[in-house]
User: Fold these one by one.
Assistant:
Number 1:
Amino acid sequence: MNLLEKLPTPKPNIKSWCANSQTSPDTYETQVYPKISIIMPSYNQGGFIEETIRSILLQNYPALELIIMDGGSTDETVDILKKYDKWINFWVSEKDAGQSDAMNKGWRKATGEVIAFINSDDYYEQEVLARVGKFFAKAKGKNMLLGKTRVIESDGTEIKVKTPCNRYSHLAVLGGRHAMPNNPVGYFYSREIQEEVGDFDVNDHYSMDYRFLLKAFKSADYISFEDAVFGNYRYDDHTKTFNNNQAKGSQVRLKLQRMAVEESAVFGEEYLRYLQKSHALTNRKFGLTSRLGIRKMLTPRINKQLEKIDEKLLALERKPSS
């Protein structure tokens, strides 16, 4: 099906592949593909949401469920949702209790075997759903599939490409040494994982995704990585990621470290001791003064200590008993 010709004409500000291209239906083999439910929480992202929607639809994935939970946007968002209404499985625009609430409502409406979330100002790379569908069609058990993410400016200019970690302890130590899967545009997972982990915390509007990842990494039977860019996410002064990092700094890091300790209790006391030592060293490193060359002198020494702790944590890491 030439969906590109059937979809409405996009706004001229869309410059990415989904403005005038699509994944060919011939990409998909004659096999049964699992249904992928993509859930999009949204609020006042009318300048970007059309690109996000098109990057999903123009995958031409044969078993797609698109759910959009808008929090009552007052910009052009609703007009765009109406524009694409025919191709969206479910959408609503109504007041909610924030992003976590929208995500909870969305995943509970989803019926797919595979779950993914995407923010309404981000977009997928071409053919990513073909990769994901083929993987989950063959996968057994509870799986997470991770890919690279491209960090972009508001106008789409690339900042960098991030490769995520796929080990629990690398996720738990924080400190920037191992890039976490820090945007949902870069991962897909079995529905059973979401059901086991449960809802996102509606009282947490900034770090609910980190808590989810800690729980999901423990829940998954297999965490796989594919060496390809799955999606693009914007990092500018309108995003919560930016405001988190710039305005709160060490307070956010300490909050995430507390989460990591809470979620890691299942690995035992020895694991927790090493994890807390890792966090303490990381905080010490970030707190070093640059005066008199102290930071330059002490950072390599601390990094060596952190590397040794990483090795201990990896050795102690195990699937917690249920």
Number 2:
Amino acid sequence: MSQELDDDSDRFEYHLECGRDQPTGANPRAGILLIGGAEEGRLGEDAATQWFLKRVDRGHYLVLRSGRSGGQASWLCEQYRELIASAAELSIDSRGAANNPEVIRYIRNADALFIAGGDQDAYENYWEGSAIEEAINDLINQKKVPVAGTSAGMAILGDYYYAPAHAGILSSEILNDPFHHNTKDIYRSDFIKVPILKHVITDTHLDRLNDDHTETRHGRLFGFLARIMHDTNKAFPVYGIGLEEGAFVAINERGIAKVFGNGSSQGQDAYFLQTLGHAPEQIQPGLPLIWNWNGQAVKVYKISGTPEGSGHFDLTNWSQATGGEWEYWFTTGGAAGFQRKPMK
């Protein structure tokens, strides 16, 4: 079953890949699965997917995206049919569609929600302030279904989120000028509301390096924390969760996270960042960021994911952790001074 509407004022696609489009009677369990992007075929993907699907209680799995439907739902039907009643893709590509009653019905019928990768700016433009936003938040906070997000889908699950209208900011750009013009697209507390991610900003693809991506994003996430600390005048602690490609962070209903990945010492790592109440020593437009505090500006717990899931990080207190290692991140001056050092 599929449906497409091409009117620009009410543009969406719905494709039911398997099963039937009706309430299932499932009793899903809450949970959040954060995915760092580029996860297809990675070690850890199967175990993370099964962790998520077991919380669905053989219910209806809905993939939400913009920019036309993809292959996530059909992959679920092929690989995990016994764990779901049905799977469908819904692409919302206009503000009109984001308030369409039929679209909202599709979302409210879901027993699990997977927010696909793509363009978080499109998600913010089309969905924020719409009936879709209300329906998603009801799924999370009232129906308490499991929710997953990869890449752009993970980015918008944070209380703070970065949705650039143009090219995303580089680590060097925000570290050398924390008020770079691309930082205007950091938003907070006005979109998806996941209680365990309150005061958290997320970032993905931290380790991606290729001809089009010449810098890693570890420094970028650090820079986001500095700007948020400044903009909120240290009103409360600020946290960050950053994932390398192919890393999966599974957060259960008690707020305990574990990490799936490739089990190696390089790549597919998860980072849990927390500010310690010390504002940057220098944060001004046009000047490099200085956030040092004797090499202890931001406290970070790093967990290297394994195929079966590893580590234990308590997001209710950000202090109880096992299976990883503590680090400090800081900069003595801009990108050139940015460092990550193990805690001694």
Number 3:
Amino acid sequence: MKKILIIGANGQIGSELIAALRIKYGQQNVVGMDLREPAEEQKKAGPWELGDATKRESIEGIVKKHQIDTVFHLAALLSATGEKDPDLCWRLNMDSLRHVLELAKEHKLSVFWPSSIAAFGPTTPRVKTPQYTTLEPTTMYGVTKVAGELLCQYYHHRWNVDVRSVRYPGLISWKTPPGGGTTDYAVAIFYDALQKGSYECFVGPDTVLPMMYMPDAIRGTIELMEAPAEKIKVRTAYNLAAISFSAKELAAVVAKKVKGFSCTYKPDQRQKIADSWPQSIDDSVARKDWSWKHEYGLEKMADDMLLNLRNKFGK
């Protein structure tokens, strides 16, 4: 039976991944780790450790205590937040990854680490961005993702560390509120639609970005880690895609489903970041290598978001 550690288990991905993995592998076999205490419900659901991902001894102590063999390393500072403190972004994102890879080498751990479309930049083809392409990001977050991809590949080639990664597009989830990412308008619009009846979008109406509903992202992450090693041909990070839409297309779908909803646009500093990222992703390599396939389109995602948020808000 696997013994799994999720670093950054309080985050947007971690809080949903830990629940899915506990269902699959058993509550006591999946350990959550974060700097902050989790919600009481999460804490009661299985083992939990407070720990600092920038400190190797913190991670190693937990690995040894729980006899961990698989690490999902999700702790990171995101794009817009990272631009406010580039030094912290580098230290958190890169130091923690290096610690995990070193421990993986020494303790024979399997590792999942997420990259992002932030690894791309203005010189990358923006439509159907290919698996192998130019990586020249313009944010510190993106820089850490490119460096991290290369570091993961190095540890695999040099020491045969089984580390796997995907380049996540923008992730949309009803369970956790927006958390400082450039694509978070696609989450915030649903929250404000139900709570305020209107939304002021921080990117322009014609901004198109690749997105994915969280259930697809969680399932794809687990499927990647469960795939036979011989099927994993990419040891930097696989492109992963589902749906692409403009901000005004998303607003129109929300308006159709929430009576009286209106959306205005006031682009801020995040517009420049969004303009440097792809509009759509070619993930044919992931689909070929380990049979990746998304399930949620725009309409199905919006229906599920609104259903769950209405229950959450009691509306």
Number 4:
Amino acid sequence: MRAMRSPSRLLTAGAVALLAVLIVAVALSHLASSPTAVAPSFLPSPSPVASGGASPTATPSASASVLPSGDTEATLLAIEQQVREIRGLPAPDIGPPQIISRDQLQDELRDKFAHDYPKARQRADNATLHALGLLTGDQDIATLQLRLLGQQVLGYYDETKRRMVVVTDAGLDPNAEITYAHEYTHALQDAAFKLSSLDLNAAGEDDRSLARQSLVEGDASVVMYQWAFAHLTPSELQGIAQTPIPDTGDVPPWMLQQLLFPYLAGSQFVTALGGGLGGDFAAVDRAFRNRPPASTEQVVHPEKYTANERPMRVRAPDPASALGADWRQVSSTTMGEALIQITLEGLGASGDTAAAAAGWGGDRLVVATGPDDGFALTWRLKWDSAADAREFADAYRSLDLPMSHRLVELADDEVLVVQASSEDVLDRVAEGVAGG
């Protein structure tokens, strides 16, 4: 299972509107429940102090929006200035925002998706996700990702061309403004830390990529909410919270969970580093420059990041080598704690899937395909303790999978999962690789 690919920043931008609705609604509900309540831990204080030394408006009011709403470019430039004050990073050299129409966006989306997500990688992802059981029938990962975007994108930062883009058809309402604050933070990150240096789409490193993406999106999300609580009125915040949740149609729930993970868990991670708590982003800056999170385990459990608890290297056997010349390996990657939990839940595991994924030490998943649409999957997992291994094994054994499958206990703290398109293939793989 590859971490949700971001063939362009358009895909991640498409999640911001949904994220804003979900978290602002939670925040307002929580604050409304008690006059003395504080925002949830993953949200910044409603009256943050900017790391650059300035103090944004502590109490949102009708006068917070200084510029006329019709002055689109001036309003966007004001948001940029406000975001820079919150995040404490210098202005990037990207010029004024580019205004495009919804039709132009759709053209860009198709072109960038085709360029950044080639057919060969789509086929490999489809094979892996079908072998895991997360995609069924004729479901196609690229089609589902494009469907997730829908009409949600209001603006984005184009990392390749280094430009801010705003979709005019949506109008410059609070949803568009909060999205712009988020995406402009990416422009600041790119100028200060060079996002390409994080290698967010490294082959075979899905867990690490998702962890680093969580740093990027968590930082932008925390800044976004600091900006919103400082510069939007209570009625505007309420309006965002009441925005209808976009219809995601037949997109599987696990895809939504994976898409939102970098924003939700990333916000918590950045907050734990100090970002959002009085606006001190020094530790966040150090994470970008020196030590981005090495695993989603470090994101979910920030104390493990602080302790620099790194993943163990695990080698999984290649099922193709056990099956013969007609078979070929199509993917090899590390899943990690977050994707393990999302996978178990997506496949219908009983019990606490978060607990079943906790205690992860390292893993490697390999998928091969062969004649007559055959497939075979080997997935070797190392755990911190025998108890952690048993918890995962119990969750896996509760699954009702549509393919032949087996769990082999290699050691007290290590298991091997084998899944295949038939019992014959399963037996051949299990016999050939169990001791590998």
